[in-house]
Amino acid sequence: KKKHSCRNQVLPRSKEFGDALYAVDIGQNDIAYGLRTVGDAQLLASIPDIITQLVLAVQHLYTQGARTFWIHNTGPIGCLPSTLLTITNPPPGFLDNHGCVKSQNDIAQEFNRQLKSRVMKLRTDLPHAAITYVDIYAAKYGLISSSKQHGFVEARKICCGYHKNGIDVGCGGILALPNGTQISGPSCEDPSTYISWDGVHYTEAANHWIASRLINGSFSDPPIPITHACYATS
């Protein structure tokens, strides 16, 4: 009895689950792992299975009463500074006009194309749900491709960590050199001017820039603000 009492104090009432907004953001870690472990062809072949797992999760939430979904696509993984650190003397056409790995972004965009198609089908399969497809890729790429125009430093620069002279120390890490000296990976002085926090994750300032454009519906299908995300259930 005591256990149930504690749970009731922490969790919302059952009927409130139907009033919640469920944001679903899956894909980048799967793609990143695939890029490290398998070839592009095998990774592309796995995309339908990855998306099926996402769809099953949404369907399960729907059976439990969820009705309002924000489904994010995946970002431009080929623009992550952690990826670009390892690239020296790339051949012509390897990078796009903004210095991102073209083949990796092509895979991310193929994932997004298939995801959007499945989201459209979900709207038919779950007629009482309001499902918004959110183009995270376009928002992030828009920031990366025009970072200085929006008050940020060059997009490939990393705020936290040490990455010089072929030596890489992760954010907060310490590397002991053979000569007895140590190199640490500290934070930059002003994170608000950086897009990348640690080479993979975005800074608070960058996330704020991105979020401010997502919530007004500029990158959504249908193009509605987050305040109207429950359009099909109201």
From TrEMBL:
GO molecular function: hydrolase activity, acting on ester bonds
Keyword Cytoplasm: no
Superkingdom assignment: Eukaryota
Keywords in alphabetical order: Glycoprotein
UniProt key word Glycoprotein: yes
Family: Belongs to the 'GDSL' lipolytic enzyme family.
Name the UniProt record assigns to this protein: GDSL esterase/lipase
Lineage: Eukaryota, Viridiplantae, Streptophyta, Embryophyta, Tracheophyta
